[in-house]
Design brief:
The protein is mainly β. It has strands at residues 2-6, 15-25, 29-40, 45-58, 62-75, 83-98, 103-112, 121-135, 138-151, 164-175, 186-192. It contains no helices and eleven strands. The protein has an eleven-stranded antiparallel beta sheet, with no helix packed on it.
Length: 193
């Protein structure tokens, strides 16, 4: 369970949240169920979210995971009428090891509907994270992210002119816990439009 009050615990809150989660862990299966309620007093927005995240391990080296979440947002800015908006989030991922466990691959993607949670956007997200063990103490990591946002013009925090946002982030890093534990030399580039 959790309780959060912001900006300070013992003074009037701008945002107040509480919730709980339950986790089940078995040999080849795990399951996470979560609920949260958030009250944003400054924006007069109340949000309830429930989510589940099952994870399956197959043949010790392969893992499939899924995320499903539903939400309801109530906006009380107009005293005469309360606006309710429902939304959802869907996600899936795959993790595995190849080439005698020298290459770890993690691929994940998700879709967030425009009415999900307190957010005012529709989002597509894809991520690839690979780690290659080159020698005993060296690892090469490749990360690729794609994000696409489409903003809701009716949302309370919409900024005119920011209807769509796309960005791609890519990086290649060399790490060594033994020879340079505090530094990760690498290359990255970011494309935004």
């Amino acid at each position: 369970a959790f309780y959060i009050r912001s900006p300070y615990l013992f003074e009037p809150a701008l945002i107040e949240s509480f919730g709980a989660h339950h986790r089940l862990e078995l040999n080849n299966f795990s399951y996470l169920l979560q609920y949260s309620h958030s009250n944003h007093y400054g924006a007069d927005v109340k949000t309830d979210v429930i989510s589940t995240a099952p994870k399956f391990r197959i043949n010790k080296k392969h893992t499939l995971n899924f995320t499903i979440a539903l939400s309801q947002r109530k906006t009380d800015t107009n005293p005469a009428e309360t606006e309710k908006k429902q939304g959802y989030l869907l996600g899936a991922g795959y993790t595995s090891y190849f080439i005698q466990n020298r290459w770890k691959l993690n691929v994940r993607g998700s879709y967030t509907s425009r009415g999900f949670g307190t957010y005012g956007y529709e989002r597509w997200f894809a991520n690839q994270h690979s780690s290659f063990t080159i020698k005993k103490y060296y690892q090469l990591t490749v990360i690729n992210n794609y994000n696409q946002y489409q903003y809701d013009k009716q949302h309370y925090n919409y900024i005119p002119g920011y209807d769509n946002n796309y960005f791609i982030f890519n990086s290649v890093n060399l790490t060594s816990a033994k020879y340079f534990p505090s530094v990760s030399p690498g290359l990255f580039y970011d494309i935004r439009y």
